[in-house]
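Below is a filled-in request sheet from our internal design queue. Each sheet records the structural input a requester submitted and the sequence that came back. We keep these sheets so that new team members can see what a complete request looks like end to end.

REQUESTER: design group, bay 2
PRIORITY: normal
MODE: inverse folding
CHAIN LENGTH: 249
BACKBONE (tokenized):
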């Protein structure tokens, strides 16, 4: 019997990657729809009645938790997430499985095997696990752990820890790693809201720096505070408004 699946993921590259990996991890699985946001996912679930839903927790329009609630008891759910606290809680509950970003074929195969082992049973009711997830999310903010970087025609997923600093220019937000710079599809304001403030400090109107990438702090010939980086030759200017972050305590 054919098994129908739906993918709900807002990142185009990850949508394509997940579909390609599913073709290897679960041969014969029929992907009947791919959604880019919450409302589209809800519409496709109603239209196609999938057996399995591969669901990104963080999506525009409405959250993956909202979509999972509407899918409760209707299809088996695999959460696709970059947020540990969601994934671990979902996995421990046992009613659903999860795949962490960046997605690997080995981990996806494991998730698919677990779903296949439950296919002869009705899909789990998810109300209790979703209540726990929502409660956990309200108490523990899910900071961003992975981010997409665009460079030329290539898009790659890297850990937040690999970023030395983010900097906004006139048209883009740029992420700088030890190896180079790439464009980020997020504004600096969005990054400030999504990044752990203990890891990334705002040191200028246009700059967020990874505190673990800082080698030291000095001053230029005009007496302005500058940051020296461990793995980059350039120095980052610190505006007067943020100079207090580097004063001795």
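RETURNED SEQUENCE:
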């Amino acid at each position: 019997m054919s098994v129908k699946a739906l993918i709900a993921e807002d990142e185009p590259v990850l949508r394509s990657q997940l579909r390609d990996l599913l073709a290897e991890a679960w041969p014969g699985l029929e992907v009947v729809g791919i959604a880019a946001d919450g409302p589209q996912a809800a519409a496709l679930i109603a239209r196609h009645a999938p057996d399995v839903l591969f669901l990104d927790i963080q999506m525009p329009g409405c959250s993956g938790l909202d979509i999972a609630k509407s899918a409760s008891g209707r299809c088996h759910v695999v959460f696709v997430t970059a947020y540990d606290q969601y994934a671990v809680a979902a996995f421990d509950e046992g009613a659903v499985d999860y795949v962490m970003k960046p997605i690997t074929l080995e981990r996806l195969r494991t998730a698919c095997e677990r779903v296949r082992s439950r296919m002869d049973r009705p899909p789990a009711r998810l109300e209790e696990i979703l209540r726990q997830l929502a409660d956990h999310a309200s108490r523990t903010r899910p900071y961003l752990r992975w981010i997409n970087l665009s460079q030329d025609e290539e898009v790659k997923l890297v850990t937040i820890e690999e970023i030395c600093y983010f900097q906004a220019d006139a048209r883009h937000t740029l992420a700088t790693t030890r190896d180079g710079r790439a464009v980020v599809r997020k504004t600096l304001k969005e990054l400030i809201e999504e990044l752990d403030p203990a890891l990334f400090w705002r040191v200028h109107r246009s700059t967020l720096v990874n505190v673990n990438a800082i080698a030291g702090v000095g001053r230029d010939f005009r007496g302005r505070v500058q940051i020296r980086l461990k793995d980059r030759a350039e120095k980052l200017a610190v505006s007067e408004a943020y100079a207090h972050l580097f004063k001795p305590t």
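SHEET NOTES:
- The chain has a mean pLDDT of 86.
- Residues 199 and 212 are 7 Å apart (CA to CA).
FILED BY: M.R.
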